[in-house]
């Protein structure tokens, strides 16, 4: 009897098992993990599967993990004995960021107007694990055949001596890499930096650790250390999509490739910067490091008082041309000197900065005489010879040939005798004693047509002011109209903000989504809490918006959601922006 009793219960248990994870209407939505325990050097596949198509899929935040691939979608549909079988899956590949116990939270989706949520699942992340022999993954192959290297020209420079850093990617001939995306760019703290921009860097045949590779330069930068001691250069990190061969072959015997996303980093580099020697340092040294020439020139040496001349103090050569002070000339007080105009002609190559910098002084003498411009000295440190050098200019004599005399003339060429004032006969003009004056009574403003018109103008403006005031009061009382106008302004504002952020995926789609939402608030009078694509589609259909415009609007909202987890190119962003402008314009006419 007991055995028969248990046998009778088996169908009930089977039905309960089949009903597990299903809603009353037979709809299922669940999360599946490839494993619930993994090493920190492994990856985890997370699938969200449903047996009926839905909308507004919202993944969990994957706290403790980094999404390296996904979401990717797969759909399976079949008929068997007249019964339709349907399955749709959103898949993610994630990698752990730390060891410990983590929980992958709930995902949600709306199916037939009802929200379904998956059950959270726990994952344990342990120390890095050794994979058994033969279990070589695409990531392992990518690690072995993909290298990003920071090549530093000099790891032990002097303070303010130029060094170059070239970030070069080495790719083995057995794999292919594409779709690079910069993740982390060094800040170069304690360095003065200058990027060397070159477009369309070629791919070259190269060697890495005595093996043939293809190489491409991703970034070139020239650095001038501003502090002595050990300085660190932060890592430069990029993300690549890599295709690696597998052990499988296709029908024609060709290797089957597997795709993966790989993050490669050049790693930190330490630069040991030597301080400039104190022994032999000149008093006028202002920080110039390199190999320079120095000169002081004037465009003329003979002129009259109140005329001007240009004196140029110029340093040319190769070194830190933008990082030191130019020496200033010491001029006699009888020469009026204006603030200098700084001139710069410097170009930066991978070997450092070269060119010339200078100050151009405008000098105006006040008195006649001869005025010397004393020699000016300029000191710099040459890292090649490891010595200080001092350059001096020649003395320049300014000869002012004519003009008022100066009793304190340092040249001694001006006489102390007073000069005789001679007249030329035209110092004074004749003053007219009988001017030709006329009365202005006929041209006076009072009692004219303009006078009375200005008096009547305020009275004529009173009716116009009353009409304007009534219209403003009517506009202020139109609460619904004001709300619509405000929402339209916000929509235009956010659409304009989206255009300004083209190229920045996250900022662009946030601004685009806000623009779409505010437009709907203005036209359909619904609150943000009511937003779901099913609700929007039904309301647009009620408003008799055509299907193409409605589908375009819903598609834009889907792209805004998918942009949080997928890669979108600038071309895709431009297309979405153009589509948003067209959809809003068309919908506005139809509504």
TrEMBL record:
It comes from the Bacteria. Keywords: Membrane, Signal, Transmembrane, Transmembrane helix. InterPro entries: BatD (IPR025738). Pfam families: BatD. It comes from Aggregatimonas sangjinii. This is Protein BatD. The chain crosses the membrane at residues 451-468. PANTHER family: BATD, PROTEIN BATD-RELATED. Residues 1-21 form the signal peptide.
């Amino acid at each position: 009897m007991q055995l028969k009793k248990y046998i009778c219960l088996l169908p009930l248990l089977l039905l309960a098992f089949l009903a597990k994870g299903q809603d009353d209407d037979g709809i299922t939505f669940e999360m599946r993990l490839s494993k619930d325990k993994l090493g920190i050097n492994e990856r985890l596949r997370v699938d969200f599967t449903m047996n009926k198509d839905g909308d507004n899929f919202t993944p969990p935040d994957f706290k403790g993990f980094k999404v390296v691939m996904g979401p990717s979608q797969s759909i399976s549909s079949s008929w068997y004995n007249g019964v339709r079988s349907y399955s749709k899956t959103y898949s993610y590949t994630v990698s752990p960021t730390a060891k410990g116990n983590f929980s992958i939270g709930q995902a949600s989706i709306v199916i037939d107007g009802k929200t379904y949520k998956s059950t959270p699942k726990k994952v344990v992340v342990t120390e890095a694990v050794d994979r058994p022999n033969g279990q070589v993954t695409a990531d392992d192959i990518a690690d072995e055949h993909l290298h990003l290297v920071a090549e530093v020209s000099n790891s032990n420079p002097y303070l303010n001596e130029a060094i170059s850093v070239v970030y070069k990617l080495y790719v083995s001939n057995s794999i292919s890499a594409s779709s690079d995306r910069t993740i982390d760019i060094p800040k170069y703290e304690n360095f003065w930096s200058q990027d060397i921009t070159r477009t369309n860097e070629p791919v070259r045949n190269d060697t890495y650790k005595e093996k043939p590779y293809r190489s491409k330069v991703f970034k070139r930068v020239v650095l001038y250390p501003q502090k002595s001691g050990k300085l660190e250069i932060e890592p430069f990190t990029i993300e690549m999509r890599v295709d690696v061969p597998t052990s499988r072959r296709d029908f024609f015997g060709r290797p089957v490739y597997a795709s993966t996303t790989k993050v490669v980093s050049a790693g930190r580099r330490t630069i040991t910067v030597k301080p400039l020697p104190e022994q032999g340092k000149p008093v006028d040294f202002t920080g110039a490091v390199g190999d320079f020439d120095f000169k002081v020139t004037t465009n003329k040496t003979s002129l009259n008082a109140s005329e001007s001349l240009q004196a140029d103090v110029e340093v040319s050569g190769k070194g830190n041309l933008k990082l030191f002070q130019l020496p200033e000339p010491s001029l006699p007080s009888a020469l009026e000197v204006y603030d200098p105009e700084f001139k710069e002609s410097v170009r930066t190559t991978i070997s450092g900065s070269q060119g010339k910098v200078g100050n151009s002084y405008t000098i105006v003498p006040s008195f006649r005489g001869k005025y010397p411009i004393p020699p000016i000295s300029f000191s710099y440190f040459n890292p090649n010879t490891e010595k200080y050098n001092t350059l001096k200019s020649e003395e320049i004599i300014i000869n002012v040939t004519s003009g008022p005399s100066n009793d304190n003339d340092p040249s001694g060429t001006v006489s102390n005798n007073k000069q005789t004032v001679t007249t030329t006969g035209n110092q004074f003009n004749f003053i007219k004693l009988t001017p030709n004056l006329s009365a202005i009574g006929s041209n006076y403003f009072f009692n004219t047509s303009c006078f009375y018109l200005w008096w009547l103008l305020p009275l004529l403006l009173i009716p116009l002011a009353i009409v304007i005031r009534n219209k403003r009061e009517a506009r202020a009382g139109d609460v619904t109209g004001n709300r619509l106008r405000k929402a339209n302004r916000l929509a235009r504002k956010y659409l304009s903000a989206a255009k300004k952020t083209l190229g920045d995926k996250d900022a662009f789609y946030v601004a685009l989504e806000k623009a779409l939402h505010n437009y709907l608030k203005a036209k359909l009078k619904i609150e943000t809490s009511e937003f779901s694509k099913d609700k929007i589609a039904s309301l647009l259909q009620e408003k008799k918006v055509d299907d193409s415009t409605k589908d375009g609007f819903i598609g834009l909202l889907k792209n805004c959601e998918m942009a949080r987890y997928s890669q979108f190119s600038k071309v895709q962003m431009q297309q979405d922006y153009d589509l948003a402008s067209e959809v809003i314009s068309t919908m506005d006419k139809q509504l």
